[in-house]
Design brief:
Layout (H helix, E strand, L loop, with lengths): L1 E7 L3 H12 L4 E4 L13 E3 L15 E3 L1 E5 L6 E4 L7 E3 L2 H14 L3 E3 L6 E4 L5 E4 L3 E9 L6 H6 L7 E10 L2 H7 L3 E5 L8 E7 L3 E8 L4 H8 L5 H4 L13 E6 L7 E2 L2 E3 L15 H21 L4 H31 L4 H13 L2 H12 L4 H9 L2 H24 L2
Parallel strand pairs: 1-2, 1-11, 2-8, 5-13, 11-18
Antiparallel strand pairs: 3-7, 4-7, 5-6, 9-10, 10-11, 12-15, 12-16, 13-14, 14-15, 17-18
Helix pairs in contact: 1-2, 1-7, 7-8, 8-11, 8-12, 9-10, 9-12, 10-11
Bound molecules: flavin-adenine dinucleotide.
Length: about 425
Amino acid sequence: MIYDLIVVGGGPGGATAAKIAAESGANVILLEAAEEGRYKCCAGGIPARNEAFSPIPHGVGDREITGGVLFTPKSGPMEFEALGKNNKGYCMFRTDFDKFLVNIAQDAGAQVMYGFRVKGIEFTNHGDVYVKGPTEYRSKCVILATGLGGAQLQRHLGMEVPPMISGIQAEFVIPESVIDEQFGNRVWEFFDRALIDHGIAWVFPKREAVSIGILGKGVKMTHFESFLKNSYIKDKIAGRKMKIFGGRKVWAAPIPDQLIAKPYRERVMVVGDACGTADPILYEGIYQARLSGKLAAEVFCQAFEEEDFGETSLARYHNLLLKHLYEEDLRYAYKFHHLLYHSGLLERIIEATFSIAREDPEMMQSTIALFTETETRKKSWEVMMSRKLKLMKQLGIKNSLRLAPTLLRASRI
Ligand SMILES: Cc1cc2nc3c(=O)[nH]c(=O)nc-3n(C[C@H](O)[C@H](O)[C@H](O)COP(=O)(O)OP(=O)(O)OC[C@H]3O[C@@H](n4cnc5c(N)ncnc54)[C@H](O)[C@@H]3O)c2cc1C
């Protein structure tokens, strides 16, 4: 069977791309390596702007999130309420969410094949692409949405693989009423270099479970185990069981650190984590994967109409990615990343920012937006930089001197 488009990978990036391409009338197949309902190691926190792609039904968005709590070794809990409809978010299991996204792609007309691991991609001289796995499929164009599980495929195609860090997490079963009382509808984020250098730890409440995890450069099981002993968490999870998925309680997974330089070649576009789209402030990547999937699908539709899947035609995907994801968001997320994780002052900056924000509504709104993504990263950066002197005053002379070279480097990103 010859398809117009083959999408490889049924995560948020691939499912969104398949839905949009199928809606345009193209003949699309989505090939997913795992079986239906696979567990994905992810805290599952998403901001409301995901609903721009498709509304999130009750039940899939397991718990509505309306605020957050920040912890540093010195200060905490620093609580914020994200008021307003667009500020809310959800915490959910990726098992449910990804299945929902694949189902809506299927409803739009995409064919879906689970349990199909793509092992090779080859091109013919007649302009076809052969996608090989348990069987073989042919198409005009391929969208690679394999997360970080398709590195070999990318390398084989002569394409870059993004640099990555790793996360470790487990889901603890806790009755809903206890979660309501002890955690509420708030995500907890820990900024503490004693827990993990160059990374964060979190507690994300779902309806009847909480995801507890840690991510960062060189993260190991020992980091995770010591986080579970944190004084704010230890008693709350004492005696609670971890959920088992695929025979395992504790899961680890990689997450990309940076966008690749060229996410396209003739007949191929790379989206989502495979392309390095995750935002490295809190390492969220679901929205970004969906946005890149949407943009790639739109470029596919144009190329399909023009019958041109050449490199120049698909380069439009890269331009759109730069315009809609990089210029006002990822670029500034990299600046924040540099400031937080490369200054050696992670917890001090969080404390100082929150302290300024308590007296300054605009700063508070921008700080909250780092979590809710209701403002562009550019706007949040501009607000923070306009308070640079206040920030330095909060940090004190010694820390400000340490901060200065990082700020200079961040400003050049
Ligand atoms: C510990 C942790 C916590 C996280 N928490 C959050 C969070 O709270 N919020 C957030 O927004 N992001 C979070 N992320 C990031 C988020 O999980 C990713 O950014 C997101 O899943 C990227 O979506 P994707 O579609 O690009 O890739 P994926 O979701 O990884 O999907 C890729 C799919 O491709 C399939 N695949 C791989 N290779 C092949 C192949 N050869 N053939 C066929 N199929 C293949 C895989 O089975 C998988 O289903 C977290 C990540 C980690 C590691």
